[in-house]
Amino acid sequence: MAVFAVFLAVGTRAFGGPAAQISALSTEFIHERQWISVERFRRALAVCQILPGPEAHEMCCYLGVLRSGRIGGVMAGLGFMLPGLVLMLIASIAYDSVNLREPAIAGAMMAMQVAATALIVRATVRLAHTLAAGRLLACTLIIAMCVTLAWSMLGTTRVDHIEHSARAVSVPELFGHGLVAGLVSFGGAYTSIPYVAGIACGPNGWMSEAAFLDGVALAGVLPAPLVIFGTFVGYQGHGVWGALAFTAGIFLPAFTFIVAGFRVLERVIASSRVRLLLDLAGATAVGVIAATAIGLVLRSVFAFDVASFARGTIAPLPSDTALRAILFIVLMTYFFRIKGRFAVPLAMLSAAMIGAGFGACSLLAADMNPQ
């Protein structure tokens, strides 16, 4: 239970997606608790990046097994995912009664996404400093970042042309879809988005594209791995039981590969023959995260989509671009200077209040000037 409590506390602060979560894990368990060395952490991360599933959650399972055996791995994984699961369940239940496009709520969501992006950039810088020290690893990171950015210009992870035809869906079927989604999520949750969108929003799906994208947006601002959007998708299919079934399926591979395969994983990490390869893979993982951070800055601050730009489509800047940019700069300064366990939740809450206020003022201004 001690391991569960430790990772439950980590999970409540796990804002900002994999970059921020891995950075927090490295700070907590390398520098503060000293459960693991930098080199071992880097090589374990490299293996987790190769395996299907959210790498931050897999790292939690790995650290739990390292500390307290297989039971510790299960407890660590459950503790880390529980806060996000509960919050996403609450959000899923409230979704039908709350309009996310209402100006105040949309403003709060926008500001929280900007805050999460600032947190990701801060975490990426720290990860690069910790896990990619040395010229060879730094060059590997830069190459991986450039290749990932180039690949994103092809638009391979976009969700386009999704049709919707609602239908009833069973709990076992939702578990099966979640399991497949977890097995295809190599490199993180982003790779599972096209599959889940295709089965949930396609001709035989059970939810609209707009609802699916709302679920992904909610997952992006909650303290949880991004794959927690599966809880929202499952809820849309069969209520609470559907949410739990889809969540169980999408997280099962992460638990299984790490907890059941821990001894094999340890032999790989300890092998001198693959040590350099794993170091390079770890730097590559940070490079992919860095590319993701750049893309998030472009999208959340400037509403600029790299894939659309590559196709020759350039959308006009949103009216709140100045607010987004100022908020991003302020939050970046805050995250680099302010430390503490409550620094991130306080920043997310403050950003939400600022965004909600801006949205409400925009609505008031529109009502006063209808032309």
Low-confidence stretches: 156-164
Q: Mind telling me the C-alpha Rg?
A: 20 Å
Number of strands: 0
Terminal CA distance reads 61 Å
Total domain units: 1
Mean pLDDT: 81
Order of helices and strands: HHHHHHHHHHHHHHH
Structural overview:
This protein is mainly alpha-helical and 371 residues long. The protein has one domain. It contains 15 helices and no strands. The protein is globular. About 2% of the residues have low confidence.
Topology (SSEs and partners):
Blueprint: H1 2-12, H2 17-32, H3 38-50, H4 55-95, H5 103-131, H6 135-152, H7 171-183, H8 193-201, H9 209-221, H10 229-260, H11 262-270, H12 275-302, H13 306-310, H14 321-337, H15 343-368
Helix pairs in contact: 1-4, 2-4, 2-5, 3-4, 3-11, 3-12, 4-10, 5-9, 5-12, 5-14, 5-15, 6-12, 7-10, 9-10, 14-15
Task: Write a compact overview of the structure shown.
Helices cover 75% and strands 0% of the residues.
Question: Key features?
Answer:
75% helix, 15 helices, mainly alpha, 371 residues
